[in-house]
Amino acid sequence: MGVGLTHGTFIRLVAAGTGLSFRTVAAWTAQENGPVDNPLNIGPGNSYGSNVKAAAATIALLRKDVANRNGYRDILASAGKPDLIQLKAIIASKWEATHYEGGMRLFNTYNSLFPDGKIRFSPKDITVGNPVTGAKNLLTDIVPSLLGKLASTNTWIRVVLVIIGVVALLGALGIFVRELR
Question: Which one of 3, 72, 101, 109 is least enclosed by Cβ atoms within 10 Å?
């Protein structure tokens, strides 16, 4: 894995054409490790003849995902945001089938290329959905949070108080109905 001088033009053009940071595009390109005429490995076996044409094809593909079926629009929406958000958008997209092994490979590549700007992350930080808006991952964010709340003493005290309140209300209604007869 590496970003050679041959990819520099591609990285600069994609960064300029998408608004993504140079660092994000460089790490993404290094992780994909495609040939000069297709550094981000677009499609099986595509070759564009030059890194300039490959950059144009990459930008067009990212913009073409009109229905956002692949999450590419979310990648573009992360432009101008911190690199962490941009990387999360790439990871959450369908660009790579394993989502760069939950982000580990892409973050490690970024950190190895730019040790001065190391990004700290956890696999649970990776969201399914739109990382730009901070959509929550059901399994890693929402369920544990709910389970944590269910296990708390305060939650059970509230549940018992609600049950007592309902029983008292039903009892009062029963007495009221008997008085009306």
Answer: 101
- Say how far apart CA 5 and CA 20 lie, in whole Å: 19
75 and 152 co-located in one domain: no
How far apart (Å, rounded) are the C-alpha atoms in residues 99 and 12?
24
Number of domains in the chain: 2
33-47: pLDDT as tens digits: 999 899 999 987 789
Q: What is the DSSP letter of 139?
A: I
Work out the angle between the directed axes of helices 83-92 and 22-32 (0-180°, nearest 10). 40
Instruction: Give yes or no: residues 92 and 159 share one domain.
Output: no
* Domain that includes residue 162, residue range: 144-180
Residue 162 token pair: 């609600």
